[in-house]
Structures are given as C-alpha cells and as structure tokens.
Amino acid sequence: MIFLFLQGIVYGVAQSPQNPTEYIDRIELGYRGIVFDGELSREQASNLMRKESVIIEDVKDIDDFIYAIDTLKFTGGDYVSPFTAISTFFNPLRPNGVYLVPEPHGDYDGYATIFYTDGRLPEMIWFGYGSVDYGHKSYKMTYDLNGYLLSLMQTMPKREAREIKVPKKLDISGIDKIVITQITQDNFKDGLPRGDFALSTQTISSVLTRSEINNSETIRKIMSALQQLQYKETLYYDTTSPALVAHYKINGGLEWVYAADPVVGLIQIFRKSPKLVEMIWITCDYIERGYFKYYKDRYIQDVISEFISY
C-alpha cells in the first residue's frame, strides 16, 4: 500500500523534500481516516487520536512520510497558528441554543508532529477532509494520502505514554551560523516593537550591536541554552509575525497596536539546508521562539551577554 502510494502520488519529476530528513528525530501520527459525517475541531481531533497515535522513527519511513507531504499540491497560504482551535459559534435564528461548529476548512481527521534533533521546535501538520495545513501553507488532501496514513496507523508502533522526548543528541551540523542583534543604548532599554527593531537592523547604528557566531563550540553552547529554557505559554502568533492588531478608536478609525512585548534583541539561526532562518525574539523578561514564550533565566542571559559589544 505504501509503495503504491509513493509511486502514484505525483506525475513527472518528484519534488525535493523541503525538510532534510537527517535532522528529524521522529514523527508522531494520529489519524482516523476521512469521515464525512464526523466533523471535528482541532481540539476534538487531538483528544480523540492521542491514545491511538503511532511513532515513525525508521529513517526510510521518515523519508517516505516527508516525501508524501512535500509532493502534495499547494492550494494557498494559511497563516492560522497550528496551536489554535479554529471553531466558531453558530447562533440560530430561533433562540433554542448556541452551537459550536468547525469552520468549513476545520473538519480535522488527525495530525502529525515532527520532532527535530538540530534544535528546531516541533512542527505540526493537520489533516482535514479537503486540505492539509502545514507551515503557513495549505495543500490538497488526496485519497492516496488518506490510504497511506491509514496504513501507517496499522503498521507503526503505538506511541508510548511518556513525556515529550528530548532528542538523544543535539545535532548542530546543519547550523551555518547564529547572529545575535541587541539594543545597547539606555534610552531604548525597555525595547522596541518588533517592526521598529527589524527596520533598525537594516542599518546597524549606535542603537544596536550585532554579533555573528560561526564557532561550533559556541553554537552548541547557545543551542543548549535555548533547549533548556522553561516553557511559559503558547502564543496565537509566532516569531515571524510583527503581531500587529487593529483596534477601533472610540472616536472612529483604526489604531494598530503591537500584541507582542517590546523586544531588546533578536537571535537568528541560519541553517545550511534548506535555506531557512529561525527568528527568536528577546524581551526584557522572556524569550519568544516559534509560537512559544519561555522564561529568560540567568543562564541564557549570561550566554547572550557574552556577545554585547559597546
């Protein structure tokens, strides 16, 4: 079944994977198959499939899974956080109750979580009746993919009842360099909005200092410090967003307000393949990475302060 799917998923030249699979530790999959009359929100799908999920750890199986996702047909951008439920309330004309229903694109049948060994945070893929949501993009769900995922659910080992597994070893071989940019002037010590900070980085002035780290020992030290951070909360926006939100003024008109905390620094992790850059924002009290906020402990502060030069 798996072989037939991989042979027939695309016609012509196969696309190269967007994710280098050598840095994937494992993939956890929970999938029940396409159910036409069983609409589920993300919350409901995750609760239903948690106990039934399986683990994909073999290198060949991981390669096949990533290939299957990378060869799906792109249908459009999707900027909804993978960590938010996208249900809505239905308020009928007659006052006989209020119903919670999924959005039209929110009929989910399962999900997968990809865990990495090179310091990247886990990524989530949501499988719906008509679409696959992954990495700010939507792809067309196919019957071939449905059959392939069901076959994995039947053949892969069940997920163990354990806490999130920390990668056996932090692999930094795929990291090219790390760039740390920080505010050094006292009159900006409380931070700048993300957008203003980003504009300032384009022309380094006396306000900012930039350090470029390409020494493997120092890169490992920084990545280890990031890996040890204590989780605080999940955000509805990620670090690639300026987090601007529009509010109506009392006297009319729109006012744009930054939902994110002001930032005092930025860590950029440049990876060799694929060509991607991870952004990590530093605020006065926290570290924001991906969709997550972490406490800025003394150790990470000491590591970062090593690269401040006035």
Can you give a write-up of this model?
The protein is of the alpha+beta class and 310 residues long. The protein contains seven helices and 18 strands. Strand 4 (87-90) and strand 5 form a beta hairpin.
Overall spatial form: globular
CA-based gyration radius = 22 Å
Q: H/E order of the elements?
A: HEHEHEEEEEEEHEHEHEEEEEEEH
Order of the strands making up the biggest sheet: 2-1-6-7-8-9-3
Our measurement of the CA-to-CA distance between the termini, rounded to an integer number of angstroms, reads 61 Å
Structure summary:
The chain is α+β, with helices and mostly antiparallel strands and 310 residues long. Helix content is 22%, strand content 32%.
